[in-house]
Design brief:
Layout: H1 5-16, E1 21-29, E2 35-43, H2 53-62, H3 66-83, E3 89-94, H4 96-99, H5 108-116, E4 123-128, H6 136-148, E5 152-158, H7 164-171, E6 175-178, H8 180-183, H9 190-206, E7 209-212, H10 218-227, E8 231-232, E9 275-277, H11 282-291, E10 297-302, E11 305-311, H12 312-320, H13 324-328, H14 333-336, E12 343-345, H15 350-359, E13 368-373, E14 376-382, H16 383-398, H17 410-422, E15 428-435, H18 437-444, H19 446-463, E16 470-475, E17 478-483, H20 485-502, H21 509-514, E18 516-520, E19 526-530, E20 533-539, H22 549-566, E21 570-573
Parallel strand pairs: 2-3, 3-4, 4-5, 5-6, 6-7, 7-8, 9-10, 12-13, 20-21
Antiparallel strand pairs: 1-2, 1-8, 10-11, 13-14, 15-17, 15-20, 16-17, 18-19
């Protein structure tokens, strides 16, 4: 599309009157759903044919006013960001071609920041890969200059051009932004997924942070997070806006742990006990405790507001001192009560209250606390009952998430299988189990064994990321992968290959060279155990033949046993469809020697 003389006139009018509107799009941390910064974008006047940034910059290039336009964009963006008192980093787009011009104003951006009162350390210079740079040496020199001034460097639109990896290698950026083309529908496209996955791995190896650009759906967000992206940006998280609105952290950005139920709240530990007014005499309270041996602690209230606590043991200790009864029995409760008793709201969780009690140094020896609702007395809580309930709570929570890998445990796995059976959906279950894990644990210790389990969990999640796959950790060295029948085999083969390549690093050099370790077996005999390998048994249950998760578990366990018989890193796919079928035989051979 040719640029008319009218467009150049319109552009000059815009530049002369600074008639541009800076907009800011949030960039979100996928670790904690917090805004780490904003990318500055620009729009022309709403009633102008150059409102679109594409048309605006196309006109600037044709009218030889590109540098003038870019410097004005930078100036207005910095001023607006500083004026709003925005937190985090400011991402500024810089055309790398302008950095190479001899007359490009050196230090102007830093002066703009100084005038606005912004630290250059808060600014990220984005260099787009869309623009092809002939002389990389000059570009590296220009980027080095920005770094010396305190700026961070980002490569934008990685994958949109042809020199991405070369540019990455030469510039060594702090941040890499993956082009939105590869993020769009990434959960449905295995090629895009492989690209994103490998870029993220490369970033982790070089120390760069990855931004997934153009996130528009929850599925894209979840997959990018599971693949290991550090940051995200896109319409789903926030559109470009002139104002800096508070970011609303959605539920799908939080870890998928069981929600706190009503039973997790402290109100269920509240024991209804009589209260005493703060002007009650100590002698009267002593009589109340004597007549009611089960009472151990009473709340002192003013109206219906709890103001303190008096405990049987503390009162008895006070009276048992020399002349203690004579000196104290005529005192009011207000004079002897514990005014620093722990008072918690009824909607607090068990974990929250346990932390409050543990951190309360003044009442380290106290076994009771007060529970209130909106400040009004509700009942007495016992630390002993709290500890008991917290222990029960943690045991139940362990059924939902494995404490080592934080992967879903038995209950979520069973629910997922039962849900698929109820929907009559065809699916596959892979049962993954390590060979000779116990001898490895015995020789190298549990910390090294845990590291191997975390490695395996990481590998499985990397190759089975996205909502189409479900990864669980049964316990120990047993893992489960639930996926579509047509995708399960290639995923399992990738897992086998990567595990075989990475696990030798957990062995001492001599053991790795020897191909294994020597350890005692269960009979006390010395045996040689090869380097850890992975057995994967795959079941393809028929929803019409399997009634529940127990049937599916039996199928997958049998398949796993067959895989272990093969030995080494092996994959076995069973043809059994239901619990009554008898015949089973391998459809696959060991994937890795």
């Amino acid at each position: 599309m040719a640029i008319s003389e009218h467009s150049c006139t319109e552009l000059q009018h815009i530049l002369q009157h600074k008639a541009l509107q800076p907009l800011f799009q949030p960039i979100i941390s996928l670790a904690d759903a917090k805004v780490i910064g904003y990318e500055a974008l620009i729009r022309g006047p709403s009633d102008s044919p150059l409102h679109s940034p594409i048309q605006l910059f196309k006109a600037a290039l044709a009218c030889k006013a590109l540098e003038q336009l870019e410097m004005l964009c930078r100036e207005l963006s910095i001023e607006a960001f500083a004026r709003a008192g925005a937190h985090g980093k400011l991402f500024l787009n810089v055309n790398p071609l302008l950095l190479l011009t001899a007359d490009h104003p050196s230090g102007l951006t830093k002066r703009m920041l100084q005038d606005a009162g912004l630290d250059p350390a808060r600014v990220v210079i984005e260099i787009s890969e869309q623009y092809q740079v002939e002389d990389a040496t000059l570009l590296i020199k220009a980027v080095h200059h920005y770094r010396q001034l305190g700026f961070q460097i980002a490569i934008d639109d990685l994958g949109s051009g042809f020199s991405g990896l070369k540019l990455w290698s030469e510039l060594q950026p702090d941040i890499v932004k993956i082009d939105r083309y590869f993020i769009s529908e990434v959960h449905r496209d295995q090629t895009k997924k492989a690209f994103v996955q490998n870029i993220i791995r490369l970033a982790k190896a070089t120390g760069a942070l990855i931004v997934a650009e153009g996130i528009e759906t929850q599925e894209e967000l979840v997959l990018c997070r599971e693949l290991g992206a550090d940051l995200a940006q896109g319409y789903l998280l926030g559109r470009p806006h002139a104002e800096f609105k508070p970011f609303n952290a959605r539920n799908w950005l939080r870890p998928e742990l069981p929600a706190n139920t009503v039973q997790d709240r402290i109100e269920h530990l509240a024991v209804q006990m009589p209260t005493i007014s703060f002007n009650t005499l100590a002698f009267a309270v002593s009589e109340m405790f004597r007549l009611n041996p089960a009472w151990q602690s009473l709340a002192v209230v003013e109206g219906d507001i709890a103001v303190g606590l008096i405990c049987r043991a503390e009162l008895q200790a006070l009276f048992s001192q020399p002349f203690g009864r004579a000196l104290n029995e005529k005192k009011t409760v207000a004079q002897i009560m514990n005014t620093k008793a722990v008072i918690v709201e009824a909607d607090k969780t068990l974990d929250e209250v346990s932390k409050i009690v543990a951190e309360d140094e003044y009442n380290a020896a106290s076994w009771y606390f007060i529970i209130s609702r909106q400040g009004r007395y509700l009942g007495i809580g016992s630390v002993r009952q709290l500890l008991k309930r917290v222990s029960e709570h943690k045991l139940q929570h362990a059924r939902y998430a494995n404490p080592l890998t934080f992967l879903p445990g038995n209950v979520p796995i069973y629910r997922e299988i039962d849900s698929l059976l109820a929907k009559s959906v065809a699916f596959a279950v892979a049962y993954l189990d390590l060979n000779h894990f116990k001898p490895f644990n015995d020789i190298y210790g549990y910390s090294k064994g845990d590291a191997v389990l975390q490695l395996l969990a990481e590998i499985i999640q990397q190759h089975a990321a996205g909502e189409d796959h479900f990864v669980g950790h049964i316990g120990g060295d047993d893992f489960v992968l639930i996926s579509a029948a047509e995708t399960i085999e290639p995923i399992c083969r990738q897992i086998l290959l990567e595990f075989a390549a990475r696990v030798p690093a957990f062995y001492a050099y001599t053991d790795a060279q020897n191909g294994g370790i020597t350890a005692q077996n269960r009979s006390g005999e010395s045996c040689f155990y090869p380097i850890l390998s992975l057995a994967i048994g795959v079941a393809l249950p028929d929803p019409l033949q399997c009634q529940n998760h127990h049937d599916v578990a039996a199928l997958s366990t049998a398949a796993k046993c067959e895989a272990k018989k093969i030995g080494g890193n092996a994959l076995f796919i069973s043809r059994r469809k239901g619990p009554d079928a008898q015949h089973t035989f391998p459809l696959a051979r060991p994937s890795v020697a």
